[in-house]
């Protein structure tokens, strides 16, 4: 849920990893098409605003609310609720980013688990990476948008932003990196360079302070963002 390049003159935008309807179950018409459309809406809602969902939410259709109810356990899996340990796939993701997470964490003055949790939340545990037009990974695990001052590669992707508390689907230009190391280094430098995130730096293992600092700085427009990140980070730290 990413932001455009942060400067004091640019209003806070949000890094938001794009979500897409799950493939399969037929084409674009009939039951398969309806299923895919509804499941895609639910996936968007779960990833970008699932916290505190109620059946009266106006952002889902009637069919979507039914599927959201049936998939409530899937929603909690994003932040690890109900599971004391990461799944094998999630653990593999954490191990793959561990060296870069530690490096970024050292620069930021926070525990590596907090950086890993942030990458996991933004990328859906690496399962929903932002992809280039040729289908290759952009390695942008933090959903950082490309502002006017960004000199690197870019890609256009769908995303969800919150306007007045309502989820709105849109498209945005995101940064693209040659590898994971570059992505984590740019992430750390972006947080260090922008004064809006000062309160998130040097927070050590305090998941609440780190998550709150990012949210207050405008890292994401999702009103539940800090709570989601804090819960996931606490899970990785071995908390409840």
The counted number of beta strands is: 2
- What are the secondary-structure elements, in order, as H or E? HHHHHEEHHH
Strand order of the largest sheet: 1-2
Largest sheet: 2 strands, antiparallel
Mean pLDDT, nearest integer? Answer: 73
Q: State the secondary-structure class.
A: mainly alpha
In terms of DSSP E residues, the strand content is 5-15%
Helix fraction bin: 40-55%
Computed Rg? 17 Å
Globally, the shape reads globular
Tell me the span between the first and last alpha carbons. 25 Å
What are the low-pLDDT stretches, counting only 5+ consecutive residues below 50?
2-60, 62-82
Q: Please count the helical segments.
A: 8
Question: Could you please describe the fold and organization of this structure?
Answer:
- Helix content is 44%, strand content 9%.
- It is globular and about 40 Å long.
- The model is unreliable at 2-60 and 62-82 (pLDDT under 50).
- Strand 1 (153-163) and strand 2 (166-176) form a beta hairpin.
- Strands 1-2 form a two-stranded antiparallel ribbon.
- It contains eight helices and two strands; from the N terminus they run αααααββααα.
- Helix 5 packs across helix 8 and helix 7 (207-216) runs antiparallel to helix 8.
- With 240 residues, the protein is mainly α.
- The chain has helices at 30-49, 62-70, 72-79, 88-108, 112-123, 180-193, 207-216, 225-236, and strands at 153-163, 166-176.
């Amino acid at each position: 849920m990413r932001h455009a390049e942060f400067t004091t003159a640019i209003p806070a935008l949000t890094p938001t990893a794009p979500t897409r309807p799950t493939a399969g179950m037929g084409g674009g018409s009939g039951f398969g098409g309806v299923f895919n459309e509804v499941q895609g809406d639910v996936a968007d809602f779960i990833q970008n605003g699932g916290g505190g969902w109620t059946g009266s939410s106006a952002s889902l259709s009637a069919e979507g609310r039914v599927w959201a109810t049936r998939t409530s356990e899937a929603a909690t899996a994003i932040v690890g609720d109900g599971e004391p340990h990461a799944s094998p796939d999630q653990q593999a993701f954490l191990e793959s980013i561990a060296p870069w997470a530690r490096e970024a964490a050292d620069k930021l003055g926070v525990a590596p688990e907090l950086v890993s949790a942030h990458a996991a939340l933004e990328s859906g545990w690496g399962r929903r990476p932002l992809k280039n037009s040729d289908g290759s990974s952009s390695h942008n695990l933090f959903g950082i948008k490309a502002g006017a001052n960004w000199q690197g590669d870019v890609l256009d992707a769908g995303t969800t932003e919150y306007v007045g508390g309502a989820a709105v689907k849109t498209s945005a230009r995101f940064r693209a990196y040659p590898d994971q190391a570059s992505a984590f280094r740019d992430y750390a430098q972006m947080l260090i360079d922008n004064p809006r995130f000062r309160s998130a730096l040097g927070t050590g293992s305090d998941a609440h302070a780190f998550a709150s600092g990012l949210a207050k700085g405008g890292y994401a427009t999702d009103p539940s963002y800090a709570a989601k990140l804090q819960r996931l980070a606490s899970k990785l730290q071995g908390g409840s």
